[in-house]
Amino acid sequence: MIKRILVANRGEIARRIFTTARRVGIETVAVHSDADVDLPFVREADAAVRLPGNTPAETYLRADLVLEAARRTGADAIHPGYGFLSENADFARKVIGAGLTWIGPAPESIVSMGSKIESKKLMAAAGVPVLPDLTVDTATEDDLPLLVKASAGGGGRGMRIVRTLADLPREIAAAQAEAEAAFGDGTVFVEPYVEHSRHVEVQVVGDRFGEVAVLGERDCSVQRRHQKVIEEAPAPNIDPTVVAQMHEAARNAGSAIDYLGAGTVEFLYDPDKERFFFLEMNTRLQVEHPVTEAVFDVDLVELQLAVAEGRSLAGLDTPRSSLAGHSTSEAGTAGHSTSEPGTAGHSTSEATFGGRVGAEGRGDVSRPAGHAIEVRLYAEDPAHDWQPQSGRLTSFEIPGLTEFERAGRAGVRVDSGFESGSEVSTHYDAMLAKVIAWAPTRAETARMLAGALRRARLHGIVTNRDMLVAALMNESFLSGEVSTAFFDREPAVLDAGTGDPDPTTLFAAAVLRAEQVAARRKVQTRIPVGWRNVVSQPQRTTFSVGETEHVVEWTTGRSGYEAASSDTGIEVLEASPHAVHLRVNGISTRFDGVVTDDHVHVDGPLGAVSLRVVPRFVDPADQVAEGSLLAPMPGTIISVGASVGDQVDEGQTILVMEAMKMQHTIAAPYAGTVTELPATAGQQVEAGAVLAVVSTDQSTDSEGEPA
User: Fold this and answer.
1) What is the CA radius of gyration of the chain?
2) Residue 256 needs a FRET pair 20 to 30 A away by CA distance; which of 33, 90, 450, 589 works?
3) Residues 48, 73 contacting (CB under 8 angstroms)
């Protein structure tokens, strides 16, 4: 029996595993980098060990440091989480060799699935459908479009879509470079790219007695940059016969490698021809595992622990009585299929849990109850090429159940590694939280999840929250017409929340700002905010959103705040530095806010908005030359593709930088001449640093010098 478990991971992943470990009575150990020292998972563990450094290579990827931490803290088991060392066979062997319990599959299984090239051969031999492998020499026009893909990793890194054969060699080279940087292995392969495909995966759990349980399928098709954004279970709008075939193929895949523990078999589904192909097998727990837990009311981490301790799946009780193959009268737990648009509505003749995993012979689960959807809340800007963000989370409050708890009925679950005041660094992935909702039907689930996101208080960093709400309420999504091309088909959702804030929200922000300034005063505290002895002009507060500035004019006196324009219909009923209660044309409305030195973050009835306070006077040292290309975030310069004096075209790549596990291209904003280029390859840069200056031809003299 496991007594003390070390989680070789961070943030939300560590907290998720700690939650189950505590519930079953297992003590917990955290390891952490310097950058993560103040995150919740560190203080929530029974013991924590510092791994000196910040980057993954310095800390979480150091097997020797992790094993030493286990020895020092008396841990008798290691859970790798998902990511980092979770699919590292050498690490698994070292854990086992140290006499510790490895909570994961056998190292041999990790090796067999670690190479996408070799795993495809193994799956083909097991009768699992696969796509053909192509090369520069064998690919033809009929095979287009093509997908170049890294063999050793995932998450969209080392992947390129190729639409002309002439581009194939260049894209292979680019994918190899990115794969080498991300995974230490530049091996890539080429296969046909299925347009408008869907990404469907099947959850399996194997034990030491040869059972491979199938816990249904998930749809993970809504993606950006080949990385998942929205996941759900069960998968909508797939023929039940095809679903049953996927389940069988996943079982065959797990059996072919004698799989132990929780794993995921991923398929590419072609809805036009109702066929599917093996993509890869993730020999670990997946980020999106909560949707499976919600619809089957199981704890996949607990099943991992059980398998690691040598117990049989056939002897494990499952908590939801509706999985016994019959419906119940309780709301939301009937476990029956529906005919609602966008709902899978399938059931098969395969065996169900029967109250126990595998108790009816083959370890199948074919009757999920209700529907679950998970969204990944990222620190990124969807409207600007998904640009990652970093910095301090001024507010981070998402309404839902106790974190990581399963919903027995309709409800929202929040899995996050952050809290208000946490610092989001550039060293790790940009995901802030997973927000999961469960309800009897797909439409109810989407509405519930969108509502929770709308009510969330997320300030300090730009997030994809507004885009997620728009996607969940999008008619195409609600109909179940999801695919990997969702954002290409529905580009409007990317601009959600980017419009100009309404005048009432701006006025509320100005009042919040004024109240905050007044609260900080050390003298004349009894004088009304913004009071003037002789009123000649209104007070003016200027905010900016992106490149647009908004001026709010207001006055104040004994009667309180008033808008400078009398036709706004705005009355201020109550004001403080944290909330403003307005009555607008007879309708009372509350605005909550967080005010910092240079921003006002407002949550109101029309959504949330972050406004930068434009200072009345600008420090000349903060001004930059026209045409300056600034670092959008802290990161590392990977390559520089131009020199001072070069003539460049609009959109031409000047340099490439890496931040938050992704590469980002910095391009010329217009045709002109590179007049300054202080950035060099390998250089660490801060957000806002000038990387290059491109001057238009009109602003340079005949010798290329600034006029």
Assistant:
1) 27
2) 90
3) no
Provide the terminal-to-terminal Cα distance of the chain, rounded to the nearest Å. 76
Quote the pTM value. Answer: 0.81
Nearest to 228 by CA among 29, 374, 105, 85: 374
Q: Which of 292, 285, 212 is CA-nearest to residue 250?
A: 212
Angstrom distance (rounded) from CA 199 to CA 215: 17
As a whole number, mean pLDDT of residues 559-582 equals: 88
One-letter identity of residue 205: V
d(CA 138, CA 144): 12
Share of the chain above pLDDT 70, in %: 86
CA atoms of 607 and 680, how far apart (whole Å): 41
CB 481 within 8 A of CB 616: no
Look at the alpha carbons of 272, 277, 280, 281 in this order and tell me if their dihedral is positive or negative. Answer: positive
Identify the pLDDT of residue 622.
Answer: 56
Q: Which residue has the tokens 């016969």?
A: 241
User: Which amino acid makes up residue 65?
Assistant: L
CATH number of 620-699: 2.40.50.100
Q: What is the pLDDT of residue 619?
A: 58
Question: Model confidence over 272-287: pLDDT tens digits?
Answer: 889 999 999 999 999 9
Listed by start position, the domains of the chain span: 4-103, 132-192, 198-495, 503-613, 620-699
What CATH architecture applies to the domain 503-613?
2-Layer Sandwich (3.30)
At 660, the pLDDT band (50, 70, 90 cuts) reads low
Least confident range from 74-88, 129-143, 160-174: namely 129-143
Neighbours of 316 (CB within 10 A): 20
Pick the CATH number of 4-103 from 3.40.50.20, 1.10.760.10, 3.40.50.170, 3.90.226.10: 3.40.50.20
245 pLDDT band, cuts 50/70/90, is: very high
Alpha carbon 229 to chain centroid distance?
Answer: 6
